[in-house]
Design a protein that fits this description.
Length: 722
């Protein structure tokens, strides 16, 4: 078996709100847990002749009083349980202690100022600072902690005009994907015009100093948090004019209808590149020559069979990143006059490892994933290899980006035991120096990560990185979190987590397999976990659990499985298929109703990975067979389950989690608790305030350890409940 040691020097009528003795459904646990009553409504949908019951569909109405009261009732039970866990406050205290260190982001130059983000330690949101000269005392430019009293309004984007004299920043309120954009004079820091509203899934890309491009949908009828949105449009906002005058650039005509549309202006302001997608994978690419008075829309690639984008240009020479005829990606060049694929020429060819390139200082930086670990090379604009960059160790490197005239750039390096450190890189000399190393109350020298390869059900080799204290005893009794994702071409590469550091301190094991469906080995690896091959992902995860048990890292009594979003689906499917395999299940903001996911917000865009129940009888049958909501079985003993979601999640609407919780609470045959923790004024995760994150992790770790039998924290003693 191949093993790699990763160096530690290196990231009405409804829910009853009655008191427990009046509750209709009563299930006792060690903490006298009693569930609320959740009403059932006779709702049935016909799918290709199969009648599918959906008794909790009423919970999809996020604006109803009934749903609101159900949320309150569930939270009352959940927090009543969590608050009685004897060591929860100890966990919260330690999380706060370890979280309380200064965190600084990589600096970047805009106009006369150098900007950077910083969090003093426990601030809910990072603050944006700036200074003109290196020796100047930094001044606050933007403080998102003042956006709202409770810290739930966050900064979600910041973009500067070419001369740096104007800035546009976007904010998210309560975690929603809907944004507002505010324009500032950077010298005075005063707002210069009315706030732009109702913007979603959008960047901000300036055209010189005149204005910027952004994307949005028409506000949907019904709930803005759950109603379907499927026609994205690109707009241009000219500074000094009202949003009502903004020009629609793309997406207004029926033939231009796409779910995701984005616009990006080249650094020289000559070209606008437009991406248009109906799914999270595959899309069209168009361009406009902004140097012309009436620029025409020109097609670069007119189908959605590939993932393709323009990374840079040098005059009319375009540099394009694509997986066309290259599942691991390559960079090609073409003249803007005739940019279609038949004219493409290889610039940096495909290799056996997945390519993720960036540019800075007149060079290309190609990051390759080698078994989920970073390798970075530097090329000039003629495609000549300049050097391989020496990284601090085995882990994840990122951020190799800067403007073309830059002499230096900054990159970060991290792994599972090493907090993210920022390095300053001399672009011409190829030398790195530490710019900022966090001073954190955690000693990485006590821990190590080990990469192993195990076989899945069909014999496919899957890599997994296991992190724990050095010299850990493999006795099958180590509390273990198995974390996974497995979808949407997303790669899980080694990175440090402050919260997971607390888990490791408690003698915990943290294991992350690189499941199929992810992007670790390119498009073929991704496709092997999509649609009617999705079961591969669950099989990979189950095999990871079995590996940990067989090799005595843990046992089923000390194993928890965790994942969020698509990873929440992973946990939901795994625990319903193999409820005997783990002690605790922790699905977060998960996609749990696979028959209706595509009817909410932008969910239809996930069809590349999932398929939909309307595609065909075969696709419906496949989804129905693993959909977590539809596969909770009466009389089954499910593991202790803590479902987490946010009431403002308009990415994966909380109804997925609501319905899954209701099914589990009704059908749980064992004594293990099934709880749902519903964060209010929170969304899918981005922008969540620090205080909220710490509270959530204290609850998650407390719930996990308590249900593994610990009366005290493992590093306190090893007493186990009878």
């Amino acid at each position: 078996m191949k093993k790699i040691i990763i160096g530690v020097f290196t990231l009405a009528a409804l829910a009853s709100c009655k008191d427990s003795e009046e509750t209709k459904t009563e299930k006792d646990t060690a903490l006298n847990l009693n569930y609320p009553e959740t009403k059932k409504v006779d709702t049935v949908t016909d799918y290709f002749g199969t009648q599918v019951k959906d008794p909790y569909r009423w919970l999809e109405d996020d604006r109803s009083k009934e749903t609101e009261e159900w949320v309150k009732a569930e939270n009352k039970v959940t927090f009543g349980y969590l608050d009685k866990i004897p060591f929860k406050e100890d966990l919260k205290k330690r999380l706060s202690e370890i979280w309380n260190y200064e965190k600084i982001g990589a600096p970047f130059k805009e106009g006369d100022y150098t900007y950077f983000s910083k969090n003093d330690g426990l601030q809910n949101q990072y603050v944006i600072y700036r200074r003109k000269n290196e020796n100047d005392e930094p001044e606050v430019f933007l403080d998102p902690n003042k956006f709202s009293e409770d810290g739930t309004t966050s900064l979600s984007g910041l973009s500067f005009s070419e001369n740096g004299k104007m800035a546009a920043y976007s904010i998210s309120e309560g975690g929603s994907d809907w944004r507002k954009v505010i324009v500032l004079d950077t010298e005075t820091k005063e707002v210069t015009e009315d706030t732009l509203k109702d913007i979603k899934f959008s960047g901000i890309s300036w055209k010189g100093n005149e204005g910027f491009y952004y994307s949005s949908y028409e506000k949907p009828e019904g709930s803005e948090l759950s109603a379907k949105t499927d026609q994205h449009r690109l707009f241009y906002h000219k500074i000094g004019t009202p949003q009502s005058d903004d020009k629609m650039i793309f997406g207004g005509m029926p033939e231009q209808k796409h779910r995701y549309v984005g616009g990006s202006v080249s650094e020289d302001n000559r070209y606008l590149f437009i991406s248009a997608r109906n799914s999270t994978s595959g899309g069209k690419v168009f361009m406009m020559d902004l140097s012309k008075s009436n620029p025409e829309l020109k097609t670069i690639i007119g189908n959605e069979d590939t993932d393709t984008y323009v990374i840079d240009n040098k005059g009319s020479k375009l540099y394009i990143v694509t997986n066309l005829d290259a599942p691991n990606q390559r960079i090609v060049t073409v003249d803007a006059a005739n940019p279609s694929p038949e004219n493409w020429k290889d610039f940096i060819p495909e290799t056996e490892n997945v390519l993720s390139p960036s540019t800075g200082g007149g060079y290309f930086f190609t990051e390759y994933m080698v078994d989920a670990v970073s390798q970075v090379k530097q090329y000039d604009y003629e495609g000549k290899l300049v050097r391989e960059i020496e990284l601090p160790g085995l882990g994840s490197a990122g951020g190799f980006g800067a403007k073309k005239d830059a002499d230096t750039l900054y990159y970060s390096f991290t792994n599972y035991v090493t907090p993210g450190t920022i390095y300053k890189y001399d672009i011409k000399e190829g030398t790195s120096a530490v710019y900022n190393k966090p001073n954190i109350n955690f000693n990485p020298d006590n821990y190590e990560s080990r990469q192993v390869f195990y076989k899945s059900k069909d014999g496919t080799k899957i890599p997994m990185i296991i992190t724990a204290k050095k010299g850990i005893e493999l006795n099958g009794k180590n509390p273990t979190i198995l974390y996974g994702y497995g979808g949407f071409n997303i790669s899980l590469t080694p990175s440090f987590s402050t919260a997971n550091a607390v888990w490791l301190e408690q003698g915990g094991v943290y294991a992350v397999p690189n499941l199929r469906g992810g992007g670790e080995y390119g498009r073929e690896w991704h496709d092997a976990g999509t649609k009617m091959q999705k079961q591969n992902v669950f099989d990979d995860f189950i095999a990871a659990a079995e590996y940990l048990i067989e090799n005595n890292y843990t046992s089923k009594d000390y194993l928890a499985i965790r994942g969020g979003s698509n990873g929440g689906l992973l946990v939901g499917a795994t625990m319903t298929q193999r409820p005997d395999l783990m002690k605790v299940a922790l699905p977060a903001v998960g996609v749990m109703d696979m028959l209706r996911y595509h009817t909410f917000t932008a969910g239809a865009g996930w069809a590349y990975d999932y398929g939909t129940a309307e595609d065909s009888k075969e696709m419906f049958d496949y989804l129905y067979n693993y959909s977590p909501v539809h596969n909770v079985k009466e009389g089954t003993k499910y593991p202790a389950t803590l479902i987490t979601t946010g009431d403002h999640d308009d990415r994966v609407v909380p109804a997925h989690s609501f319905k899954f919780a209701a099914e589990l609470q009704e059908k749980q045959a064992g004594d293990a608790p099934v709880l749902i923790r519903i964060e209010t004024k929170a969304g899918h995760g981005a922008g969540k305030p620090t205080s909220m994150i710490i509270d959530e992790y204290a609850d998650i770790f407390g719930f996990t350890l308590y249900n593994m039998g610990f009366e005290k924290l493992p590093n306190d003693n090893k007493e186990i409940k009878d």
